[in-house]
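Researcher: For the record, we're logging two predictions in this thread. I'll number them. Prediction 1 follows.
Model: Prediction 1, sequence and structure:
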Amino acid sequence: MAKFVAFLRGINVGGNCKIPMADLRELCREVTNDPDVRSYIASGNLVFETDSAAADVAAQISAAIKQKFGFEVPVLVLPEMNMRAISSSCPFPDEAGNKVHAFLCLNDPAVNQDKIDCLKTATEQIAIIDRTVWFFAPEGVGRSKLMANMESCIGPATARNLNTISKMVEMLDG
């Protein structure tokens, strides 16, 4: 069986699309047949093993959520090798992990550079590596216009900070 990481987009944010992690782990166990599914924080981060293909597992988890909870959730499933490559590709590894975000694009990024340039402050940095858009906001993301509008600049994505990306790789190891 191969190891995978799953990221669910937009759950448990602002009281919307609520999914308790115990329910999510159980749902994932049913889809993957892995009794040891693990989750990290309540934003929909999973580590599991399965013999199925990543795209199949993503579709099955999404369909199971729709059936059980009544709403649709985009699910991105990454094989272990891809997750490790994303983590090691971070162009800002020495910065504070809560100020570096990875936007994991659900499709190839549709970059609107003009819009990025209009929204980005002088201190903010962005780097696009494959299907990951890395964003560093040294003043924090709370006031960042680019952070708030990133999907309109790159297309659909789910974002995680560097601390979470690092924790998911650590969970793959243990």
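Researcher: Logged. Prediction 2.
Model: Prediction 2, sequence and structure:
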Amino acid sequence: MPKILLIDDDPHIRDIVRFALAREGFAVVEAGDGAQGLALAQADAPDLILLDITMPELDGTEVCRQLRRHSRIPIIFLSSRDDEIDRILGLELGGDDYVTKPFSPRELVARVKAVLRRMAPPDQPAPPSPDQQASPELRHNRLRLDLDGVRAFWDTAEVVLTATEFGLLRTLAERPGKVFSRDALMDGAYATERYVADRTVDSHIRRVRSKFQAVGGTPVETVHGLGYKLSDCR
């Protein structure tokens, strides 16, 4: 049973979300402020965090910033503000998705399931023929993606990615040389059909680049006017 940590200072919102998630078979742990939520996240190892942005003690962006120092637990931001700057800020900090209040509980549950699916290892392929070797990895020169473990490496250095970041890079790595529009990247990396702003995809790509640059890697190439493709990874 996947465990969801819900961090929101509004008890009415917590009641609605808890009921919707429990009805779908999720275990829900709750916190009413950022400080309590951060402590529970560090002690309770949830599978996903629903994180309100505006809260007492610690706001959601600071909770996310502290968690991302040592954890890649998927995070979906909840906010009553639909400002584009807030949206990009949340994703730059390492959020995996963003839902604006008021929201449909059904849509929120769908978002939770989608992010958890992106974190799950891919389905096992059919048994290989004798002249084939099954591989749970994607390799392209210095880039290696461990599909079962949802881990990324540049040479021997691990690069810790969020579920969405890994999904975007995996989509590129599955078709080296192919130029992906933002729409095509959305289709490959997002498990549900929904609108995602171009700037949101760009924000995720910036984070992927920044993380790989820290270990000397450059896995993503921009094709101006068209989109993105996997670099030669050399």
